[in-house]
Each structure stands twice: as structure tokens, then as C-alpha cells.
């Protein structure tokens, strides 16, 4: 056993020490060492029959993993947040730290390939979207989770790919993710109490934090209705029903960070209703990271 592993093992044996100062020091040291010590902590948990030690290990592992999520999320935004899939994967790992990332990427690649086979440069924007809609909603069977729409699981990538059911934001996020890989200029639009998609004629590199007012939206799509295409007038009618005045943000595409932000807001609402205070606090902190680091 390497010296570092011996030192870590020695620290772990002190986690059930009755002296609070010793425990606090050991906990801080392990958290500072980071994600690399998690396998040893998990192994120690499995080998132990001490409830106090197991509880303390669980708390430390959770803190280490959450610290990693915060760091990854901040780095994603500060590096430009160019790919929605990267931010979405970070959020998914918040709930499922051991998720098989490569497996999820392979599943997405299969969907992309099915769509790519049907596309060509001569197709119009509307024809391209019809192909996307057919492959996603007919061939692969994605749809809205009408029986449990507000369930937290609807917001995570792995549960969406497994169940083929999600909410408006997660279905949009999958749609956008596929389009980013294909170079199709589809973006999210954050409507009050809804989330839709917009198709714009512009370079696929003009993503995220850049101004969206250079080119008009050609049309919109409703992910909860199998990608049905509609125009600005339908949004006007929707806003009138909600007694809301039209605002620019209700018609213009949003960036990748806002898509992840809405997914997090959905989770906060769900966990708040379940009175999961710890989860709610953690997600509010992730939302704060997005708001503070988004300076574009």
C-alpha cells in the first residue's frame, strides 16, 4: 500500500473519535483531499459495523461530491459553457454521482446518428425540424411525463434517457443537445410556466451569451406536443391567458446556462414541496453559482 493510502486509511480510523476537535480536523483534511479519497471512504463504510462511523463517512462523501459539483459547474460557466450536455451532466452527477457518463453519451450518439442519416444540406429549416421531431418523438418515443410531471427525476439526463419521459425543460434540453452536435440552430426559450424551442437562421457557433437580436426567430416548437411548430402569435395568446405583458425574453432564445438554471429551479420547487431542506439549500447554492459566474 502506498504511503498516501496508508495516511488516508489512518485518518479514516479516526472518524469515530469522541474528541470533536480531532474529528473536525480529520473531516476537513479528507474534504480538502477531494474526490480521490471517496473510494477508500466507501470501502471503509462497507467494512464497518459502527453506525457513527458510517454516518460520518456518508456526510463527508456527500460534502466532497458536492464540492466537486460546485467546482465543475463554475468551471463550465467560466470556460464559456459551450455545450449544454456538459452542464446538464454536472447537474445529473449531483444526484447520481456514479452515473456512467460514457453510457449516456453513447445513447445520445445513437439518437444523433438516426437523425443525421435523414438530414441533408438541401432540407429547409422546417423539414429539418420535422426529421428531428419524427426521430425523437416517434422512433425513440420521448414524451412528456403527464402522470408525474413535477417529479425531480424528470430533470436529470439519465432518467430521461431511461424512461423516455420528461418535462418541457428536459425534453428541450435533449433536443438542444442533439442540435448542438448536428450544428442545427435550435435554442431554448424560457416562457413563464413553460419552456419551448426556437429555430434561428444563424451560425451554430453563435451560442449562449452572445446577443440574439441579429437574426429573427423563424418559428417555435413545443416539446410537450411532439415538437409542434408554431409562430409568435401563439406566444402572445399564451401570455394573455396568464395576464402577462409581452417581454423580449419571452420571445428570444436563451443560453445554455439559463437552461440548466431552469432545470435547477424545477428541482428546487420539487424538493421544497417534499420539505427536503438540505437538497433545496444545495440546489439554491448551485443556482447562485450560475448567477454569480454568468457575467456575459
Task: Report the end-to-end length measured between terminal Cα atoms.
Answer: 48 Å
Give the radius of gyration. Answer: 22 Å
What string gives the helices and strands in order? Answer: HHHHHHHEHEHEEEEHHH
Q: What's the pLDDT, averaged over the residues?
A: 91
**How much helix, percentage-wise, in residues?**
55-70%
Sheet/helix structural class? alpha+beta
Domain count? 2
Regions with little confidence, pLDDT below 50 for 5+ residues = 204-212
**What's the count of strands?**
6
Spatial arrangement of strands, main beta sheet: 3-4-5-6
What is the general shape?
elongated
* Helical stretch tally: 12
Tell me what portion of residues adopts beta-strand conformation.
Answer: 5-15%
Main sheet overview: 4 strands, antiparallel
Write the layout of secondary structure elements.
Layout: H1 3-13, H2 20-33, H3 38-47, H4 51-78, H5 84-95, H6 101-118, H7 125-139, E1 143-144, H8 157-163, E2 165-166, H9 168-182, E3 186-191, E4 194-200, E5 217-222, E6 228-230, H10 232-241, H11 256-273, H12 277-293
Parallel strand pairs: 1-2
Antiparallel strand pairs: 3-4, 4-5, 5-6
Helix pairs in contact: 2-4, 3-4, 4-5, 4-12, 5-11, 6-7, 6-9, 11-12
Amino acid at each position: 500500500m502506498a504511503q498516501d493510502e496508508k495516511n488516508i486509511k489512518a485518518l479514516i480510523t479516526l472518524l469515530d473519535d469522541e474528541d470533536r476537535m480531532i474529528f473536525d480536523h480529520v473531516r476537513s483534511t479528507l474534504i480538502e483531499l477531494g474526490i480521490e479519497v471517496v473510494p477508500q471512504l466507501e470501502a471503509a463504510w462497507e467494512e464497518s459495523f459502527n453506525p457513527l462511523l458510517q454516518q460520518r463517512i456518508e456526510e463527508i462523501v456527500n460534502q466532497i461530491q458536492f464540492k466537486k459539483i460546485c467546482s465543475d459547474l463554475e468551471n463550465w460557466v467560466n470556460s464559456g459553457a459551450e455545450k449544454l450536455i456538459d452542464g446538464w451532466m454536472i447537474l445529473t452527477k449531483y444526484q447520481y454521482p456514479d452515473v456512467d457518463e460514457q453510457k449516456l453519451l453513447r445513447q445520445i450518439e445513437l439518437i444523433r446518428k438516426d437523425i443525421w442519416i435523414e438530414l441533408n444540406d438541401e432540407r429547409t429549416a422546417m423539414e429539418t425540424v420535422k426529421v428531428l421531431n419524427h426521430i425523437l418523438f416517434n422512433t425513440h418515443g420521448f414524451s412528456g411525463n403527464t402522470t408525474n410531471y413535477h417529479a425531480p427525476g424528470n430533470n436529470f439526463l439519465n432518467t430521461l434517457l431511461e424512461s423516455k419521459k420528461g418535462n418541457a425543460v428536459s425534453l428541450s434540453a435533449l433536443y438542444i443537445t442533439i442540435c448542438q452536435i448536428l450544428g442545427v440552430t435550435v435554442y431554448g426559450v424560457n416562457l413563464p410556466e413553460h419552456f419551448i424551442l426556437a429555430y434561428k437562421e444563424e451560425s451554430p457557433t453563435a451560442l449562449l451569451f452572445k446577443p440574439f437580436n441579429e437574426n429573427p426567430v423563424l418559428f417555435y416548437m413545443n416539446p410537450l406536443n411532439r415538437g409542434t411548430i408554431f409562430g409568435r402569435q401563439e406566444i402572445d395568446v399564451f401570455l394573455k391567458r396568464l395576464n402577462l405583458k409581452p417581454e423580449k425574453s419571452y420571445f428570444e432564445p436563451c443560453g445554455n446556462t439559463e437552461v440548466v438554471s431552469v432545470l435547477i429551479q424545477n428541482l428546487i420547487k420539487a424538493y421544497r414541496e417534499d420539505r427536503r431542506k438540505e437538497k433545496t439549500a444545495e440546489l439554491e447554492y448551485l443556482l447562485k453559482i450560475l448567477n454569480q459566474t454568468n457575467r456575459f
